[in-house]
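Try it yourself: sequence plus xanthosine-5'-monophosphate, in.
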Amino acid sequence: MHEDIEKVLIDEDVIRRRLVVLAERIIADFEGKPMVAVALLKGAVLFVADLIRHIPLPMEFELLNVSSYHGGLKSSGEVLFLDNHQPDLHGKHVLLLDDILDTGLTMEAVTKKLKDQGAEDVKTCVLLAKDIPRDTVKEADYTGFVIANEFVVGYGLDYQDRYRNLPYVGILKEEVISS
Ligand code: XMP
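Structure, out:
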């Protein structure tokens, strides 16, 4: 385990097995539809790479660069679109993937943008969802794990752009955050 990690919350094997289950549901819903997977940078990169290899459907794949945390521990409340890439989504069924559903602002803002770009339908998929009340997106269409309202890192999730490469989801030691 990495020396900065207090506790592993979800280990590699558990993640791997859960992704197979999520993929089966996604296949059942998207089969026969023109599919585009849209993953949010940077947090969803490990998740999407592992998930879509279990989805043997024809699909296009896009990455969207957005930011709402700006490196810290709390959502800034503002979703920034960091690039101008606007794929034509007319008639497409979008699977929108992110690492974690927290306040839900990101999923809400991106879903709206994708629909404005012509998407026929947008289904949301997250590895993690914090167990908190939300006024925005209540829950994703596909959720890997519901977790307590704690700050987590690993498997794509970062603190100040570190720890994304950890193969598990974990909680940082307090002294790492306060230092
Ligand atoms: P909202 O609040 O828009 O947040 O649902 C989604 C984005 O916020 C980031 N986020 C986290 N990043 N550990 C992280 O490393 C966390 O516990 C955490 N909670 C939210 C993440 O980038 C996500 O896309």
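One thing you can check immediately is this: The chain has a mean pLDDT of 93.
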